[in-house]
Structure formats: C-alpha cells, structure tokens
Design brief:
Layout lengths: L1 E2 H4 L5 E5 L6 E8 L2 E8 L7 E9 L4 E6 L2 E6 L2 E6 L7 E7 L6 E5 L2 E8 L6 E8 L7 E8 L4 E9 L2 E8 L1
Antiparallel strand pairs: 1-5, 2-3, 3-4, 4-5, 6-7, 7-8, 8-9, 10-11, 11-12, 12-13, 14-15
C-alpha cells in the first residue's frame, strides 16, 4: 500500500469523489485521457492509504457505490461489479450493459439501482432499473421504471429503509 504523500507525486489528478463505506473510500483520478476508480483506506482519516485503482477507460461519465464487499461502477453504459474483499486486488465479477451511462448507482437489500436520464431538456425521461445482485457474478434485472417529461438532470441517489431517494435538478 502507498501513503498519500507517495501517491500524490504521480501524474494522476483528482476528478471527483464518491461516498465511502467503513474504511474504504472511492475516488476518481485521471492520467492523460484515461480515468481510474481508486480504493483508499480511510480507517485513519488523517493519513489515508492507497490500496488500488481500476482503469475505467476514456469516459469520465461514471459513478460508483460500495455495497458490503462489492464495488459497483457505472461507466460507458456498463454496470461493472467488483469483489473488493481484498481491496488491494479487486476482482471483476460481472458486466451488465444498458442503453445509457448511469447518472447514479446505489444498492440496498441485494438490489442495485441503475438510474439515468435520457432525452432533451424539454422532454427528459428518468429511467430506474432494479437488478438482483444476490449473485453478483450474474445480476438479473427484476424491474424497470420510466418516468417521462421530467425536465431534470440527475444529481445522485441513495437507498435505505425501503426508500430510494433520487436527487434531480431542473436543467
């Protein structure tokens, strides 16, 4: 593992950060035209420790969510699920394809929620896909919901206590 000071001397630059669960923290970085999702230990917040990074290609349009020992990453209209029980060596379990890149991804009670907006600013459509991830190597879509004419831009999502909260704002 690398300390913050050692890692900061590389050519990567911070692009954004996602929420953490327990001692793991996910952030995005860039090296040239390629983007990465990084895993950091924040067990000691005053001295985070770098574990590993996952190359996500040339598309910055991505979001991630840690769910137990799983890391869900959406980019390039794909949902990738990684086993991060060993955060120094994440293992890809599955890849699921969608029509659009998610603006938000979250998980709750063995279900992942893949959420995106399509359309024009005058007639946006909010789409929510629910996937059973109890077998993360073979996620299965169980339902989808389409809400037309929302005229929104997706900001984020979270799920808990049998509720799905989707943050949107007018474009």
């Amino acid at each position: 593992m690398t300390t913050t000071q050692e890692y900061s001397s590389t050519i990567r630059t911070l692009k954004g950060a996602e929420a953490s669960l327990g001692e793991l923290f996910v952030l995005y970085s860039q090296a040239g035209f390629y983007y990465f999702t990084e895993l950091w230990s924040i067990a000691q917040p005053d001295s985070p420790v770098y574990y590993s990074s996952i190359s996500t290609g040339e598309d910055l349009s991505q979001t991630s969510y840690i769910y137990g020992n799983l890391l869900l990453i959406s980019h390039d209209s794909l949902l990738k699920i990684y086993d991060i029980s060993n955060p120094a060596n994440p293992s890809l379990l599955s890849t699921t394809s969608f029509s659009y890149t998610a603006g938000a991804i979250t998980a709750y009670n063995n279900y992942a929620y893949y959420i995106y907006v399509t359309g024009t600013t005058s007639s946006d459509t909010l789409r929510i896909h629910a996937l059973d991830i109890s077998a993360p190597a073979a996620p299965a879509e169980v339902n989808s919901l389409t809400i037309a004419n929302r005229n929104v831009v997706l900001g984020g999502a979270d799920a808990a206590n049998d509720l799905l909260a989707v943050t949107t704002y007018n474009s």
